[in-house]
Design brief:
The chain has 371 residues and is α/β, with parallel strands linked by helices. 41% of the residues lie in helices and 15% in strands. It has 13 helices and 12 strands.
């Protein structure tokens, strides 16, 4: 059996999570892999992250510019993605598509595959994030999908209760990111290889994304966070937001502070660079899912701000606080007073070997459906 799989990716976060899985697929003689970058990957203002895919050497069937100049409304983004990805899938004609996560690029790609009558494999369903519009995209992608891989036990229990999801096709495998983290830790790299000027335990790692389903003033919270951290003679490494509505305001804050000597801003660190930053930072702060799912595996304290990650399973290193400057300043002061000690990890998103579990279940599923 040779199964052709198209990996449809519209954002750096999905691709960074999937790299080990993609390398494993590529090296398995039972699979033929094609990568189809679209969405944010092709935007210069967000780091043109398609370059990382090219450098990794994967076969790219087509680069699909679903965002055009990056100034589309959400409805325009969705309709353009569905139309363009449907045309690409018609030319590629894979046996299945693999989609990660919950962004609008993933939703549009799932709709395109659905209309092309191509089976959908989805990783990342079952989570709840009330502070992000992605919540509804994730739910709809799950309803469109045929085979499901979930990253936490709670997500698994939630997903098998969905009326349109066949529970026998839902598998709790953990996050494939854990495989990558374990591999990184075998041969760790220092952050200054990716961001010259940073040293271990000299900086905080900060990532904020727009909050699309709640009224939170992210810009005031960001300013307060950066100012408070700098008060302790600690540097700040800022990573770029996604391109949801409100990203422009976050970018304005980044542009305002990046001129300071102790503030560093990076559009895209790549998987290794980001793990090096997590490994070497004092603590992580912001509202990104990476602070929930990945930072605990580096035993780092995490300040999770606001509603964006509400509903996700959260490990002991994570302190969740309301999105107000006062609360943020108080949490940072407390962390510095305690010395940011290392934290235990409860492995809520698995203990590794997720990649092999995913591949085994894909083979089993398509072997049974082809009979």
């Amino acid at each position: 059996m040779e199964l052709s799989i198209a990996f449809l990716t519209g954002a750096r976060s999905e691709y960074s999570l999937a790299k080990d899985f993609l390398f494993a697929l590529e090296s398995d003689e039972d699979f033929e892999l094609a990568v189809v970058p679209n969405g944010m990957h092709l935007l210069e203002s967000y780091g043109m992250t398609v370059n990382e895919i090219r450098e990794d050497g994967f076969y790219i069937f087509e680069e699909v510019p679903t965002y055009a100049d990056g100034n589309l409304t959400k409805s325009e983004e969705l309709s353009r993605t569905v139309r363009m990805m449907r045309n690409t899938l018609s030319r590629l004609s894979p046996d299945a598509v693999f989609i990660i996560g919950d962004r609008i690029e993933a939703y549009g790609s799932a709709l395109a595959a659905h209309f092309a009558d191509i089976p959908i494999i989805h990783s990342g369903g079952g989570h709840l994030t009330p502070g992000a519009v992605d919540n509804i995209y994730r739910y709809n992608i799950s309803n469109l999908s045929d085979l499901h891989f979930v990253t936490s036990r709670g997500a698994y229990e939630r997903l098998i209760k969905c009326a349109l999801v066949e529970s026998k096709n839902v598998h709790f495998v953990g996050s494939v990111a854990v495989d990558q983290i374990k591999r990184f830790k075998e041969k760790p790299k220092e952050v200054d290889q990716f961001v010259p000027g940073l040293e271990e335990n000299s900086f905080a790692l900060m990532t904020f994304h727009p909050v699309t389903s709640a009224d939170e003033d992210i810009t005031d919270v960001m300013k307060a966070s950066i100012e408070e951290i700098l008060n302790y003679d600690t540097k700040v490494l800022l990573t770029y937001p996604n391109n949801d509505k409100g990203s422009g305001e976050i970018m304005s804050v980044i542009d305002c502070f990046r001129i300071k000597e102790d503030v560093f801003a990076e559009p895209h660190l790549g998987a290794e660079g980001y793990y090096a930053a997590l490994d070497d930072c004092l603590f992580a702060i912001g509202n990104s899912s990476s602070g929930i799912m990945e930072a605990p595996y580096f035993h780092k304290p995490v300040i999770d701000i606001g509603s964006r990650q509400e509903g996700r399973a959260k490990d002991d290193p994570i302190v969740s606080i309301p999105s107000t400057p006062k609360q943020v300043r108080s949490a940072i002061k407390k962390g510095f007073s305690e010395g940011w000690p290392e934290k235990n990890c409860s492995h809520l998103y698995g203990k590794g070997n997720s990649v092999m579990k995913v591949i085994k279940n894909i083979k089993n599923y398509f072997s049974s459906t082809s009979k």
